[in-house]
Amino acid sequence: MAYLADHPNAFMPIFKLLGPSSAISFFRLAAIVCALPGIAALLVLARRCFGHRTLELREGEFIVPCGAFEAKARVPYAAIKRVWETRTVGNNRSLFVSTGSGVYTIKSAFFPDSETYITVRDFLQGWATES
User: Fold this and answer.
1) Residue range 63-80: average pLDDT?
2) Dihedral through CA 36, CA 37, CA 38, CA 39, nearest 10?
3) What is the DSSP letter of 51?
4) Is 51 exposed, middle or buried, given 0-12, 13-18 or 19+ CB atoms closer than 10 A?
5) How far apart are the C-alpha atoms of 91 and 100, rounded to whole Å?
6) Considering the entire predicted model, what is its pTM?
7) Is 49:38 a contact under the CB 8 Å cutoff?
8) What Cα–Cα distance (Å) separates residue 27 from each residue in 20, 23, 73, 103?
9) Which 8-state DSSP code applies to residue 89?
10) CA dist 24 to 6, 12, 20, 38, 79, Å?
């Protein structure tokens, strides 16, 4: 037991392979790598809590959050080419609006209830130029 107290590095293979200073660097790097998922989760949670993800219907256009940082995109109703819907697990639905400049996703989570979602879906499908 006295030998173990005097030489704690003798029983750790990482210290034998790398040496004391390199092993400390290795453990610091391992701690940082292990902390990354927790930091990412906190960032996603903060974005979810403090980010304003709303769909705005205006005269002649709608504004929808899109992209990685939920930037607002203005989409004129006249530019709508095609509108379609997909359903996922449960009652989650997504409405896809195709224009000349891209495809925008409108999630059912933007709406307080399914009746409002259906009304907006039918309204946007009325503007679609393709079936």
Assistant:
1) 79
2) 50
3) -
4) exposed
5) 29
6) 0.60
7) no
8) 11, 6, 45, 45
9) S
10) 19, 12, 6, 22, 59
Residue 9 identity (one-letter amino acid): N
Which run of H or of E encompasses 124? Answer: helix 114-127
Asked if residue 88 lies in contact with residue 96, where contact means CB atoms within 8 angstroms, the answer is no
Q: Return the bridge partners of 96, or none.
A: 84, 105
β-partners of residue 93 are 87
* pLDDT, tens digit, 9 for 90 and up, residues 14-60: 566 666 677 777 888 889 999 999 999 998 888 777 766 778 888 88
- Distances from the Cα of 101 to the Cαs of 19, 33, 75, in angstroms? 57, 39, 9
The first and second tokens of residue 78, run together, are 């006249």
Chain-centroid distance of CA 38 in Å reads 15
Per DSSP, 129 falls in state: S
Give the chain's end-to-end CA distance (angstroms, integer): 80
